[in-house]
Specification:
Blueprint: E1 4-8, E2 12-18, H1 20-26, E3 29-38, H2 41-47, H3 49-57, E4 60-68, H4 72-79, E5 84-94, E6 108-111, H5 117-126, H6 132-135, H7 141-154, E7 161-168, E8 171-180, E9 186-194, H8 203-216, E10 222-225, E11 227-228, H9 232-240, E12 244-255
């Protein structure tokens, strides 16, 4: 059973919950702050200590929180209680997919099968270095690698997330984990990766154009995703593909 915490005072409102998939990987309880709103900074600095007591009581090892870039008072309250800024994230999106002219890239997109898992898990384990778990020096890289590999494995039979394999002449090129609206009008790309051995060989734009074509053919109009502001290469890729960018968010970690 997962644990939750709710705090509501005249100075601060906060809701946090365990993310059990991360707890399994990290070997200790991992919690995400989903909502935090400060009405009075001095009062919030005092009342926040109730959350810290709850963390200690439940032996929580890691807490993460994302805040809109303009929420500076909330960020100062977090930092006053040993939360550390880790990364800024951007939110690329496109809302008129039907208007894009996309050529044929001769790549295939298919729902992943059990036999695909070893290759896809290895890509996920080795492809990432610019996101928050690898950037935080307090988190071992091996744990961060395992997190993404486990995510891929869990998606094979996930109720809402889909694991897609991109291939060329039956060679696995990359993977996308997506979440689709019931009507397929909106799709979120949750995790995207190309095999490290193929990076820098021109596959990036081909794979992303292929994925846009794949959903364009299904009538999807809106695609959104989240990327690290540190990853300038993928930032440029989304710009070239005519994505726009929503307001950035700040990511904070608290580590016991």
């Amino acid at each position: 059973m997962t644990i939750e915490f709710s705090l509501s005072t005249p100075a601060i409102r906060l809701f946090a919950r365990e993310t059990p998939w991360d707890s399994d990987v990290f070997g200790s309880i991992v919690v995400s702050i989903d909502k935090v709103h400060v009405m009075n900074e001095l009062g919030a600095l005092r009342d926040f200590k109730g959350f810290l007591v709850w963390l200690d009581t439940n032996s929580v090892g890691l807490v993460s929180c994302r805040l809109p870039q303009q929420n500076l008072i909330e960020s100062m309250v977090l930092e006053a209680h040993d939360f550390r800024f880790v990364e800024m994230v951007l939110h690329p999106y496109i809302t008129d997919l039907h208007l894009l002219e996309l050529g044929k890239e001769n790549l295939e997109v298919q729902a992943a099968k059990g036999s695909d898992l070893p290759d896809l898990m290895e890509i996920a384990r080795t492809a990432f270095s610019n996101e928050r778990f690898h950037l935080d020096p307090r988190i071992p890289n091996g744990v961060a690698d395992k997190r993404y590999a486990q995510w891929v494995r869990s998606c094979l039979n996930h109720p809402t997330q889909k694991l897609l394999r991109i291939s060329e002449r039956d060679e696995t090129i990359g993977l996308f984990i997506t979440q689709e609206s019931p009507t397929l009008e909106k799709v979120e790309w949750l995790l995207t990766a190309i095999s490290p051995s193929l990076q820098g060989l021109g596959y990036g734009k081909r794979v992303w154009r292929t994925m846009l074509s794949f959903y364009q053919s299904k009538g999807t109009q809106t695609i959104s995703t989240t990327i690290s502001a540190r990853n300038s290469r993928v930032h440029n890729l989304y710009s070239q593909l005519q994505f726009r960018f929503g307001d950035p968010e700040m990511t904070f970690h608290w580590v016991k």
